[in-house]
Amino acid sequence: ATLAGALFVAIGALGAHFVPSYLERQGLASDVIAKRVHNLEVGVRYHAYHALALLGVSLWMMQVGKPSCSVGVLFMVGLLLFSGFLYVYTFTGIRWTVHVVPLGGLTLIAGWLVWAFQIFTLRP
User: Fold this and answer.
1) pLDDT tens digits for 15-61?
2) Which of 28, 47, 52, 58 could form a disulfide with 32, with the two C-beta atoms 3.0–4.6 Å apart?
3) d(Cα 119, Cα 124) in Å, to the nearest integer?
4) Do residues 80 and 48 make contact, with C-beta atoms less than 8 angstroms apart?
5) According to the model, what pLDDT value does residue 93 have?
6) Helices H, strands E: what count in the chain?
């Protein structure tokens, strides 16, 4: 959770201070730059939400005393697929990477649903 948090802050800072000028130097049109920066911002936002969720899952697992890392794994895989591939697309423009993003979103949703199920079935 803490590493995910540090990473989202670092990528957010890159996005704010480096990405627009980097993309301009690549010769991209302003509308393309705006779209890519927007994609980066969405990735960072969901990265932040799920870094906090990972912290919550960690605290919850300590509280119930029953280790169940499936939610954490789903959140980490979802972050990689959702935010990670948005980051890759932002910097590279490789078009196929955006088609992986919805799979990451579904994985994040699965993490929330599994966590909800566990909350109701694994009471301390």
Assistant:
1) 777 888 899 999 999 999 999 999 999 999 999 999 999 999 988 88
2) 28
3) 9
4) no
5) 92
6) 6, 0
Torsion of CA 104, 109, 111, 113, to 10 degrees: -160
Is residue 4 over pLDDT 80?
no
Say how many C-beta atoms besides its own lie within 10 A of residue 47's C-beta: 23
Beta strands in the chain (DSSP E): none
CA distance 44 to 84: 9
CA–CA distance, 86 with 108 (Å, rounded to integer): 15
pLDDT in tens, 71-122: 999 999 999 999 999 999 999 999 999 999 999 999 999 999 999 998 888 7
CB 44 within 8 A of CB 10: no
DSSP conformation class of 100: T
Average confidence score pLDDT of the chain? 89
**Residue ranges per structural domain of the chain:** 2-121
* Token pair 């929330």: residue: 112
C-beta separation of 15 from 42 below 8 A: no
